[in-house]
């Protein structure tokens, strides 16, 4: 049976659909336990068996996604694939070669459908060559039974190779961009030399256009995060995984690259504000970023919005009181209120719900955009995992928890597939991802150069920063 009890139950002849349940009825079929027609717990063996298609059964799609997503908490994707493929073939064996061939032909399209869902939703699992070998073996097997299914397997493999090649190129590009951004030109070493460096306003002085380019970067980077990366952040803590190279080799690199982008944007904002020598230029820069943040909010790009607010609230920027006095901060205060962390970010969550509803009924691709405040999304999934046992006292897997994890991750998948509707501006994009930014120490020093230390504590801080940065050069 599937998550909603739509499929026939596979223990005995009773079907979940055929029963009329009273409210809150719990039913057990062998190793699987249901509550109100929804699967709530089962043994790992039963869950694997439940994933295996037969001639007259195919698992519910939401079950396929949920189990493929969370199974990596219990076993390596390669082990799961080997077992599923083995079971699928074994179940068709009758001892009669002709009958076996007929059965294989009948089950082949369903096996292809399952492998298609797997390769399209979790393509990164197939960076493991054992997974690719297994896929090749299944292609040979299917070829014996049914030419149509064999062709479908060939097309699926081609799509998978294309996706993995795009991923490899993306990861190389991100690494190259990080390397460029780490080069520290002399123009950034001191505030006095900052005149040699172009600032954001010389590249783009239109807040709406900048917000659009930020949205390009966000959606590009989101599109390469595999849904399994959310689960692998805590799968790695499982002692069972210590000896397996899979999680060490490719844990959560695209998820981490995305978090690094948030930090970079915050530091870029702080750098742009602290660099100008003149107070009126710094004030103009603050006003510009407030406008950009507002445009990000209007677009539904909450991640860039939060990164900009974070950059403006860094202490080197926040302490520039004379500069802030020249700025009308009404709009900024409203935006801060929207992203206020109190009551577990309740204002932001309301705004996110609004953006999600707008996205569901969207008439244009721009209305579809929802880019969540990403660190909070990770935190929510982390606490959902931590706050609830994965295994029950009887050794069964708590499938209710896995449904919840899958619900959060599948929402992210919908947001991830939006194609950015705005025109790309290469010059602005290049500036945003490669222009060098100050480190925390350099920011503090630039801030003191803008508005001198106000007390002895700040004077001491400036002195020690100067000497430590001098030694570093």
TrEMBL record:
The keyword Transferase does not apply. Keywords: Guanine-nucleotide releasing factor. GO terms for cellular component: plasma membrane. GO terms for biological process: Ras protein signal transduction. Residues 35-165 form the N-terminal Ras-GEF domain. Residues 206-453 form the Ras-GEF domain. GO terms for molecular function: guanyl-nucleotide exchange factor activity. InterPro entries: Ras-like_GEF, Ras-like_Gua-exchang_fac_N, Ras_G-nucl-exch_fac_CS, Ras_GEF_dom_sf, RASGEF_cat_dom, RASGEF_cat_dom_sf. Pfam families: RasGEF, RasGEF_N. Residues 449-473 are annotated as: Disordered. This is RasGEF domain family, member 1Bb. It comes from Tetraodon nigroviridis.
């Amino acid at each position: 049976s599937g998550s909603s009890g739509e499929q026939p139950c596979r223990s005995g002849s009773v079907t979940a659909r055929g029963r009329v349940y009273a409210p809150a009825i719990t039913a057990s079929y062998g190793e699987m336990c249901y509550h109100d027609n929804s699967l709530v717990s089962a043994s790992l063996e039963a869950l694997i068996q439940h994933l295996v298609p037969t001639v007259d059964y195919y698992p519910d799609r939401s079950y396929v996604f949920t189990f493929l997503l969370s199974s990596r908490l219990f076993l390596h994707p390669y082990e799961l694939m080997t077992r599923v493929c083995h079971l699928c073939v074994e179940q068709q064996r009758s001892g009669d070669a002709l009958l076996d061939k007929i059965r294989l032909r009948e089950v082949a399209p369903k096996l292809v459908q399952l492998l298609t869902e797997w390769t399209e939703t979790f393509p990164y699992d197939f960076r493991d060559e054992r997974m690719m070998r297994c896929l090749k073996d299944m292609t040979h097997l299917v070829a014996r039974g049914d030419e149509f299914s064999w062709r479908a397997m060939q097309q699926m493999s081609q799509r998978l190779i294309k996706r993995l090649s795009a991923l490899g190129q993306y990861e190389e590009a991100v690494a190259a961009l990080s390397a460029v951004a780490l080069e520290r030109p002399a123009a950034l070493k001191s505030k006095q030399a900052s005149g040699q460096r172009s600032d954001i306003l010389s590249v783009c002085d239109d807040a709406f256009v900048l917000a659009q380019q930020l949205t390009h970067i966000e959606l590009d980077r989101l599109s390469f995060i595999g849904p399994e990366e959310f689960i692998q952040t805590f799968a790695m803590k499982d002692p069972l995984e210590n000896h397996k190279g899979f999680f060490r080799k490719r844990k959560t690199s695209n998820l981490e690259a995305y978090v690094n982008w948030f930090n970079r944007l915050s530091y870029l904002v702080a750098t742009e504000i602290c660099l100008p020598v003149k107070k009126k230029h710094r004030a103009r820069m603050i006003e510009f970023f407030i406008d950009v943040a507002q445009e990000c909010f209007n677009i539904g790009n909450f991640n860039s919005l939060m990164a900009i607010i974070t950059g403006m609230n860094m202490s080197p920027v926040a302490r520039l009181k004379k500069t802030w006095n020249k700025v009308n901060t009404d709009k900024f205060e409203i935006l801060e209120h929207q992203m206020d962390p109190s009551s577990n970010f309740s204002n932001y969550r309301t705004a996110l719900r609004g953006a999600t509803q707008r996205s569901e009924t969207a008439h244009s691709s721009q209305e579809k955009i929802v880019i969540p405040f990403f660190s909070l999304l990770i935190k929510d999934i982390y606490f959902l995992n931590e706050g609830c046992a994965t295994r029950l006292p009887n050794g069964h897997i708590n499938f209710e928890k896995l449904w919840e994890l899958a619900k959060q991750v599948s929402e992210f998948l919908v947001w991830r597939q939006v194609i950015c509707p705005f025109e790309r501006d290469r010059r602005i994009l290049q500036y945003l991802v490669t222009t060098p930014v100050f480190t925390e120490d350099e920011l503090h020093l630039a801030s003191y150069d803008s508005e001198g230390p106000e007390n002895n504590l700040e004077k001491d801080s400036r002195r020690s920063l100067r000497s430590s940065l001098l030694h570093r050069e």
